[in-house]
């Protein structure tokens, strides 16, 4: 624990030699410096490709078994987890409880700093108990520096309940080991502003979460080709997107697509199945249920 308490050795806390004159360069030079440093996020993702793929497979298996995904973090890491979870219902029409974000300090920490609360591992464990996490769930602990006690407490508690666990960090496992089944290490190097992990570390974390949640939804059949066929039609923008998907994938004009979408109950996936197979809405629903919502599999049948 002494090593964790002294964090100066961590990759995320070290001084970036490329930005030591940050306070004396022009605004254009600041932009160029950020652009150059942010490019390192791409290679960091590439180096973590196998662990990211393992997480997609594990999370897909969990959800297919009736489980849920939980992101757990504090500060920026927690906010990024909550953001990714919040984007799943409108993008993939998932129920809010399917992918959830847990942040130290609760909802208030989303808009007001509550960093002191990240130092309590027992709070992380209590959050796991509060959400009644079981052996079919998967818990993804996010901590840029790898040392956040709240996240460590949550991961250990999740493991004790038999849940699958994933650690996501921007330091090496040699610097900070974490209690998890899958270890995602996103090594982007020292920040332009020393220790400010809302920068490269935050960017690469957002990228990784995008990959995981989208990959899981692809595996669950919520995507056909590269179209979000489970899009939730809840406003004019999403309705327009739904109609364009139908237009693009069929020979229907917009007016015909509107009629088909109406008959399907505003369900793009069902509308496409109805059009391509000639079945009615109720029969189409049953067919999709038989194939766990996978449109391609239902069409094969």
Total strands: 5
Please indicate the percent range of residues in DSSP E strands (runs of 2 or more).
5-15%
Mean pLDDT: 94
Number of discrete helical segments: 13
Q: What is the CATH superfamily label of the largest domain?
A: Glucose-6-phosphate isomerase like protein, domain 1
For this structure, the CATH topology of the largest domain is Rossmann fold
Could you estimate the helical fraction of the residues in percent? 40-55%
Low-pLDDT windows of residues: none
Strand order of the largest sheet: 2-1-3-4-5
Order of helices and strands: HHHHEHEHEHEEHHHHHH
CATH-level-2 architecture of the largest domain = 3-Layer(aba) Sandwich
Which overall shape is indicated by the principal axes computed on the Cα atoms? globular
Quaternary structure: single chain
Class of the largest domain, according to the CATH hierarchy? Alpha Beta
Which class of secondary structure composition applies to the elements?
alpha/beta
Work out the count of structural domains. 2
List keywords for this structure.
301 residues, 50% helix, 2 domains, alpha/beta, Rossmann fold, five-stranded parallel beta sheet, Helicase, Ruva Protein, domain 3
Chain-wise SSE layout:
Layout: H1 2-5, H2 27-38, H3 40-47, H4 49-64, E1 69-73, H5 75-92, E2 99-103, H6 121-130, E3 138-142, H7 149-160, E4 164-169, E5 182-185, H8 200-219, H9 236-249, H10 254-263, H11 268-277, H12 281-290, H13 295-300
Parallel strand pairs: 1-2, 1-3, 3-4, 4-5
Helix pairs in contact: 3-8, 4-8, 5-8, 6-7, 9-10, 11-12
């Amino acid at each position: 624990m002494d090593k964790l308490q002294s964090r100066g050795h961590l990759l995320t806390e070290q001084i970036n030699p490329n930005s030591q004159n940050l306070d004396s360069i022009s605004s254009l030079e600041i932009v160029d410096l950020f652009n150059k440093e942010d490019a390192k996020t791409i290679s960091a993702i590439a180096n973590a490709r196998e662990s990211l793929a393992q997480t997609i497979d594990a999370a897909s298996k969990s959800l297919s078994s009736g489980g849920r995904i939980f992101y757990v973090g504090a500060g920026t890491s927690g906010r990024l987890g909550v953001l990714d979870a919040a984007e799943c219902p409108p993008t993939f029409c998932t129920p809010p409880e399917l992918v959830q974000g847990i942040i130290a300090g609760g909802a208030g920490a989303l808009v007001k700093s509550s960093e002191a609360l990240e130092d309590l591992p027992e709070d992380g464990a209590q959050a796991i108990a509060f959400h009644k996490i079981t052996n079919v769930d998967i818990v993804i602990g996010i901590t840029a520096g790898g040392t956040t006690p709240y996240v460590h407490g949550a991961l250990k508690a999740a493991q004790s309940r038999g849940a699958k666990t994933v650690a996501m960090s921007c330091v090496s496992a040699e610097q900070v080991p974490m209690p998890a089944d899958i270890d995602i290490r996103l090594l982007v190097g020292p920040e332009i502003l020393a220790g400010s992990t809302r920068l490269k570390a935050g960017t690469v974390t957002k990228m990784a979460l995008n990959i995981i949640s989208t990959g899981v939804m692809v595996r669950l059949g919520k995507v056909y080709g590269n179209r979000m066929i489970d899009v939730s039609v809840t406003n004019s923008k999403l309705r327009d997107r739904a109609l364009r998907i139908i237009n693009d994938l069929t020979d229907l004009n917009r007016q015909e697509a509107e009629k088909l979408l109406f008959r399907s109950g505003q369900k793009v996936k069902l509308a496409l199945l109805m059009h391509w197979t000639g079945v009615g809405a109720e029969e189409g629903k049953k067919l999709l249920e038989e194939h766990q919502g996978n449109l391609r599999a239902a069409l094969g049948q």
